[in-house]
Design a protein that fits this description.
This protein is mainly alpha-helical and 265 residues long. The protein contains ten helices and five strands; from the N terminus they run H-H-H-E-E-H-H-E-H-H-E-E-H-H-H. The protein is elongated.
């Protein structure tokens, strides 16, 4: 017996299918993915899925969960007001990230695409390669290109996984920088209002440093060649002096041998 008795699906049934699918899915579902759940011979009417989602969102007003849209699609999640109680169900220890990691992630999110050197210039300290790798392994950031400067440094940007984890639909949903300045933990080392200027300065410094390094390398090579030449000349002189001394010694010994001993008879 088929579930679809009529040519046009009942809207209540569509709403229940959408609700169950979003709850059962291990990741957020997009509108296209939800429409694909319905067979070709019994498709969901155009607009019916969007209408069902809107009704489901409204029905969550008095519930402990909410239906939100993130970068990858729609998902149900626990509301903040009941999170502290529900969190007791999760025995797995939550990952804690260092301040340096969060600052680096914030810079990538707000100033992407950005290079590792520009992040170091803004923060004033070196960026640990393992920290960048950890963010890549977490699938929060990825390489989106390379800066057209000497060395072709990688450009980093955020991923859909980053947006999904923080419950954001797009980068436009990030909180304004003014709000971040009010967070004491981030204020001292993240001068966001200076980021564009500093980033430009970082690129200029990268070019200057590259030229200076090339000049220093050329000078060092020139000095090394001069030193090598001087050392070689000194070694040749030493060899010649040693050769002269040996020749004199040899001649003296030869002279002593050549002198005959005459006896008076």
């Amino acid at each position: 017996m088929t579930l679809f008795m009529d040519h046009d699906l009942d809207h209540d049934l569509i709403r229940r299918i959408v609700e169950a699918a979003i709850m059962a899915a291990p990741q957020p579902l997009s509108i296209t993915q939800i429409y694909a759940l319905f067979p070709d011979d019994e498709p969901a009417p155009v607009g019916s899925v969007e209408r069902a989602i809107s009704e489901l969102q409204q029905s969550c007003d008095e519930r402990g969960v909410e239906l939100i849209e993130v970068a990858s699609g729609f998902r149900y999640q626990v509301k903040n007001e009941v999170h502290n109680w529900v969190a007791r169900l999760w025995t797995e220890r939550q990952s804690k990230y260092t301040r340096a990691t969060l600052e680096t992630l914030a810079l990538i999110a707000y100033r992407q695409p950005i290079t590792r050197g520009e992040i170091e210039q803004i923060r004033g300290v070196a960026v640990n390669a393992q920290m960048v790798k950890a963010l890549e392994d977490r699938e929060w950031i990825r390489v989106v290109g390379h800066r057209d400067v000497p060395g072709k440094p990688a450009l980093f940007g955020t991923t859909k996984g980053f947006l999904d984890y923080f419950g954001l639909k797009s980068l436009d949903a990030l909180p304004p920088l003014a709000e971040l300045k009010e967070i004491p933990e981030l204020d001292p080392q993240l001068p966001f209002d200076r980021v564009p200027q500093v980033a430009s300065a970082a690129m200029m410094n990268a070019d200057e440093n590259s030229e200076e390094e090339s000049k220093e390398i050329s000078e060092e090579n020139s000095d090394e060649d001069t030193n090598d030449t001087n050392d070689t000349n000194e070694e040749l002189k030493a060899v010649e002096m040693t050769s002269d001394d040996e020749n004199e010694t040899h001649n003296e010994e030869a002279g002593e041998i050549a002198e005959p001993e005459y006896k008076n008879e």
